[in-house]
């Protein structure tokens, strides 16, 4: 699971996040400073932050160099959850998520689903001619049809320990539902199934608070957002990878769930904070198994609030 910097220079991650894109890697480079970054006057290479490109096409091209590498190392049964949002330019959306998804499909990815993260405490926008944005996408990609998936640990438990007896008087009769007259003794099984004993599927619209304790990192997604993808798509013994790990939110969730994890972060300041956050998990006084047991029993139990309180 990962969240790359968004297009349109929405966030400034400082010069420490500069990388070299495009051009001729054997060139000695003579750079010229421009508003969006440094450009080589010899080969045209761009030196700057991902997300600060002068146009959307270059952003997508640069992002795809990372996602192609992720596709190469991901197991055939693995998943990628990509948190990405769109960007306004000259008063209109650029369609960045659509552009990225289209390129990923060409690259061999299979888009399995679109999850909507509703930010219940999202930051206000100072706009008066459109509605404020209150959601972001979490795209679920896989490499093959044989991907691993198990949502049972993410189900929302029933309100009662025992499933109530099925009220047969509330069955929907098949003949009635299709307006058939005559024999109406047949009952439609699609409308008379009992609930799943572990609870209901949480669906693909998730209401989760934003993470406002960001420190020096300007864009941190909440720990809670990582829980369902991790337990549903990374089996015990599987390894989590975040190629834009920031301050290590994905890695912390992997550690809470006892999954090995690898994080890649270009900014040394953020990488050091990620190490500190991982070390803080080791210092927890409450056992990790107790935390997870409580989360499985009560999906409303906030992992973000728990970690923040320690």
Give structural notes.
The chain is of the alpha+beta class. The chain has one domain: Vaccinia Virus protein VP39 (Rossmann fold, 3-Layer(aba) Sandwich). It is 26% helix and 17% strand. It has a 4-stranded antiparallel beta sheet with strand order 1-4-3-2, with no helix packed on it. It has a 4-stranded mixed beta sheet with strand order 5-9-8-10. The chain has a two-stranded antiparallel ribbon with strand order 6-7. A hairpin with a 2-residue loop joins β2 (31-34) and β3 (37-40). The chain is globular and about 70 Å long. The model is unreliable at 168-172 (pLDDT under 50).
How would you summarize what this structure contains?
With 310 residues, the chain is an alpha+beta fold.
Question: Span from first to last CA?
Answer: 24 Å
Count of helix runs: 8
Query: What is the averaged pLDDT score?
Result: 81
Number of strands: 12
Instruction: Report the order of strands and helices.
Output: EEEEHEEEHEEHEHEHEHHH
Per CATH, the architecture is 3-Layer(aba) Sandwich
Low-confidence stretches: 168-172
The name of the CATH topology is Rossmann fold
- Give the strand order of the largest sheet, numbering strands 1, 2, ... along the chain: 1-4-3-2
């Amino acid at each position: 699971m990962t969240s790359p910097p968004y297009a349109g220079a929405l966030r400034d991650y400082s010069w420490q996040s500069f990388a070299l894109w495009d051009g001729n890697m054997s060139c000695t480079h003579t750079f010229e400073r421009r508003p969006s970054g440094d450009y080589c006057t010899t080969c045209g290479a761009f030196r700057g932050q991902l997300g600060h490109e002068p146009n959307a096409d270059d952003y997508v091209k640069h992002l795809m160099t990372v996602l192609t590498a992720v596709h190469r190392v991901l197991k055939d049964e693995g998943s990628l959850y990509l948190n990405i949002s769109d960007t306004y330019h000259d008063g209109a959306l650029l369609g960045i998520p659509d552009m990225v998804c289209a390129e990923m499909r060409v690259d061999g990815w299979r888009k399995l689903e679109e999850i909507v993260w509703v930010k219940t405490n999202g930051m206000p926008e100072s706009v008066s001619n459109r509605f404020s944005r209150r959601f972001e996408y979490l795209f679920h990609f896989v490499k093959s049809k044989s991907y691993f998936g198990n949502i049972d640990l993410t189900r929302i438990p029933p309100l009662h320990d025992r499933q109530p007896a099925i009220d047969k008087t509330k069955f929907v009769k098949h003949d009635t539902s299709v307006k058939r007259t005559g024999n109406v003794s047949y009952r439609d099984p699609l409308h008379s199934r009992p609930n799943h004993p572990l609870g209901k599927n949480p669906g693909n619209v998730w209401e989760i608070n934003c993470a406002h304790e960001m420190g020096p990192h300007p864009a941190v997604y909440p720990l809670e957002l990582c829980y369902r993808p991790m337990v549903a798509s990374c089996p015990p013994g599987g390894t989590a990878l975040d190629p834009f790990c920031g301050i290590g939110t994905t890695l912390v969730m992997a550690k809470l769930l006892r999954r090995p994890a690898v994080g890649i972060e270009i900014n040394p300041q953020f990488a050091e904070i990620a190490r500190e956050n991982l070390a803080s998990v080791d210092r927890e006084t409450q056992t990790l198994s107790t935390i997870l047991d409580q989360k499985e029993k009560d999906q409303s139990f906030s992992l973000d609030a728990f970690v923040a309180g320690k």
